[in-house]
Design goal:
two-stranded antiparallel ribbon, 13 strands, 27% strand, single chain, alpha/beta
């Protein structure tokens, strides 16, 4: 039976990211929403029916409120005594119940290409996974200086597919030397690597790998996702899709501002926002030299 993605799993229990999905922005439709609602609507547009959210104990109520009209689609999974990103994903094992699922992080917002020729980011990723009947991670060509922020993949382009890659290697936040030695992708411009976009379609095998890693790890050791993805690439076909869009990390300095500008410029009020930005820039005085 061909793969069909009906569930999504969003991780939101990290101590440094708990409040991020509760921030409010104006979405592309001109409506003010919490970041969580924007993320949930991203996966619903891809055909997802149920959304699991991994949260810290006690966060269910504010998150349900932040989801707005979609609260009824959410299932909350608590991550008490967290042991890292991979552990957070593993807490959703019962929710996904042996089915493939799309996974998003709660501190990124996604904006598809504004030329009208591409679907939303999650739609594009889910379509690629269902068409190829395998796990697919969204990636983006990223300059070398940003490697400390992301996991990255090495591999080669799928024949006759411009933006699809066979994954051979996965490293978490590699150094430039590690990336140059193990993550070079033929055809990618110099100084750039395929880094994760914060969005994956994963098969049930990932949960099995994560469970095995947690059982084998010393008590209290953090469980990461990237080693599990590297193991997945050794076990079964695993692809990466270079998404026609951009990711915005709302957990970094000016991240929410950049995400808001990107949403506004991709939305119905683009011309008005652009005019206001031009006016703002025109009235700003250059700082005096020190």
């Amino acid at each position: 039976m061909a793969m069909k993605i009906q569930k999504a799993l969003i991780t939101a229990a990290g101590s440094s990211q708990r409040a991020l999905p509760l921030q409010r922005l104006v979405d592309r439709d001109g409506v003010e929403k919490a970041a969580l609602q924007v993320i949930v609507e991203e996966v619903l547009a891809a055909g997802v029916e149920r959304v699991g959210v991994v949260v810290c104990p006690g966060d269910e109520k504010p998150y349900a409120t932040a989801a707005g009209p979609h609260a009824g689609r959410l299932t909350f999974v608590e991550q008490a005594n967290p042991r890292g990103y991979g552990d957070a994903l593993l807490r959703g094992e019962a929710f996904v119940a042996g089915e493939p699922f799309v996974h998003l992080v709660s501190d990124h917002l996604y904006v598809s290409a504004g030329d009208g020729a591409h679907a939303r980011c999650a739609q594009e990723l889910v379509a690629a996974a269902e068409a190829n009947d395998c796990a697919v991670s969204a990636v983006q060509s990223t300059r070398e200086s940003a490697l400390p922020l992301y996991g990255a993949i090495g591999g080669h382009r799928v024949a006759q597919q411009q933006r699809l890659y066979e994954v051979e290697t996965v490293l978490e936040k590699p150094t430039p030397t590690q990336a140059e030695q193990r993550l070079t992708v033929p055809g990618l411009r110099g100084g750039h690597y395929l880094c994760f976009f914060g969005m994956h379609v994963l098969t049930p095998a990932v949960m099995t790998i994560l469970r095995n890693q947690r059982e084998a790890a010393p008590q209290g050791e953090m469980i990461s996702l990237s080693p599990a993805l590297a193991e997945l690439a050794r076990r079964e076909r695993y692809l990466a899709l270079e998404i026609a869009g951009l990711r915005y990390n709302i957990g970094v300095t000016y991240g929410t501002l950049n995400a808001q500008l990107a949403l506004a410029m991709a939305g119905k009020d683009r011309e008005e926002v652009l005019a206001q930005l031009v006016e703002l820039l025109a009235t700003q005085k250059a700082p005096r030299p020190a």
